[in-house]
Design a protein that fits this description.
mainly alpha, two-stranded antiparallel ribbon, globular, binds NADPH dihydro-nicotinamide-adenine-dinucleotide phosphate
């Protein structure tokens, strides 16, 4: 078996093991506590802490919902529906970037169609009274519980598959069970020739569930109160704009770190199957029982600011991809782009060249696109106002994730491009926030 394409020990080995083991053991209970606090403890961390103080470990076991048959049924029907759309809907043939061992994965770009079919089907099921999405909200704890255990088993399957039946040469073991399980072994695992597992877990299950749950929370509030508050409308609209942008640009996502660099293991796959539907959607989960009335003017200000941030984030990604797609022969902010031709060597010893864009958004800072990403999350959370901290957990988590990601990406690019990356750092000295960091 080939060696791992990249060993992800950006931090010291002790810190790496500590953070891996902490995330493996703390993320599952956190998901349950988050759900419990949002749905049953008024969004108040203090209330949950007092409950746990009073009832101890047994109290925690009591609030952890057991996965029920209805929860499994909802997950299975949703997963099977998304898998069928991924396989069957038509789409353009798209090639991903060249992998470290020189492969080029091929995809069918049918994400936008799948997104459209999913939302229309879900809303129609409600409209024609065939299935009420409030059932999903009412069984949310059981669904998360089932997802937690089901996804852990799925990660074991990925680990075994990586060892015994890898789909391509972009696979390998680090020689350490925990690292292999946590970071994954295969870069592009597939079932058969066409069913890409990471496209399913990250896009069609994870990101799609974000939109489906945002709509669910809205409908639940409507059924509870007979109307939807403006705060919920702003939150849902911004989340849907964000997810729509994601599927509009899904083929571009296949060029990003999640797909092109991070292998299929607990970090990415469990994260997309469990963390995205629970933590990413949590501001909406909170708003169901906290219908704040913002007033038309404030609601509009927040909405416009959020849409602007989502647009800028999209434009940063678009700029980089357009620049790479046209081999630098495009206009960036109305001018010919400034660029660096960076050569590097693949793991198989071939010399290749990549273009690095050093103007436009990519000249402001090396990861400026994370700024509007974080601000957009702030704007779809701020309709909850400031009574509780917990709705802001996603914004705080995202900020930590993206600052860590900027470091990981910088380190990876430095070792890939060497002196050319140094040149880029001289031209764009800031990592994320121009003039500050
Ligand atoms: P990027 O899209 O920023 O991709 C980084 C890669 O781009 C680098 O590894 C390098 O790859 C290439 N690159 C770096 N600098 C340049 C340059 N100047 N010119 C051309 N290519 C360059 O990575 P992300 O995956 O972090 O972000 C993608 C999107 O996903 C963003 O919008 C981000 O905000 C969003 N995101 C959202 C998250 C969430 O949880 N909500 C989490 C993470 C990302 P190469 O080897 O090809 O040179």
């Amino acid at each position: 078996m080939a060696a791992a394409p990249e060993t992800k020990t950006v931090h010291s080995p002790a810190l790496t093991y500590f953070s891996m083991l902490s995330l493996l053991s703390l993320c599952p209970p956190f998901v349950i506590l988050l759900w419990y606090t949002m749905v049953h403890a008024d969004g108040s961390v203090v209330q949950t802490r007092n409950y746990l103080k009073q009832h101890g470990l047994q109290g925690f076991i009591d609030i952890w919902p057991r996965p029920t048959a209805i929860a499994w049924k909802i997950i299975f029907v949703y997963g099977a529906f998304e898998a069928a759309l991924q396989l069957l809907l038509p789409g353009k043939r798209v090639e991903g970037p060249v992998s470290p061992t020189g492969n080029r994965p091929v995809y069918k770009a049918n994400g936008m169609a799948a997104y459209f079919v999913t939302l229309v089907t879900y809303i129609s099921l409600w409209w024609f009274e065939i299935f009420n999405p409030t059932v999903v909200y009412d069984h949310l704890g059981e669904i998360y519980s089932a997802l937690i255990f089901g996804s852990l088993i799925f990660c074991v399957f990925l680990y075994i598959k990586g060892h015994v039946a890898p789909s391509s040469t972009d696979s390998g073991s680090s020689g350490n069970l925990i690292i292999d399980f946590y970071w994954g072994m295969e870069l592009y695992p597939r079932i058969g020739k066409n069913f890409d597992i990471k496209v399913f877990t990250n896009c069609r299950f994870g990101m799609m569930s974000w939109a489906v749950l945002a709509v669910t929370y809205c409908i639940k509030q409507y059924e509870l109160n007979g109307k939807v508050s403006d705060s919920m409308l702003v939150n849902t609209t911004l989340m849907l704009v964000y997810v729509t942008k994601f599927f509009w640009w899904e083929a571009g996502y296949w060029n990003t770190m999640d797909i092109a660099h991070d292998r299929a293991g607990f970090y990415i796959c469990w994260g997309c199957l469990v963390w995205v539907p629970s933590v990413y959607t949590s501001p909406g989960m909170y708003l169901v029982n906290h219908p704040v009335n913002l007033g038309m003017q404030l609601a509009l200000y927040i909405l416009v600011a959020g849409i602007l941030c989502i647009y800028i984030n999209y434009d940063c990604d678009r700029q980089r991809q357009e620049f790479r797609r046209t081999n630098g022969k495009c206009k960036i902010w109305g001018k010919a782009p400034s660029k660096i031709e960076a050569t590097y060597t693949t793991t198989s010893g071939e010399t290749k060249t990549s273009l690095l864009l050093t103007s436009g958004w990519w000249g402001l800072a090396r990861h400026f696109h994370y700024v509007p990403e974080i601000l957009a999350a702030f704007f779809w959370t701020v309709p909850a106002l400031f009574n509780h901290f917990l709705p802001y957990f996603y914004v705080v988590f995202l900020t930590i994730l993206l600052f860590d990601r900027a470091k990981r990406d910088d380190d990876r690019c430095r070792s890939k491009y060497g002196k050319y990356w140094k040149l880029y750092c001289n031209k764009a000295p800031y990592k994320i926030i121009p003039g500050i960091y």
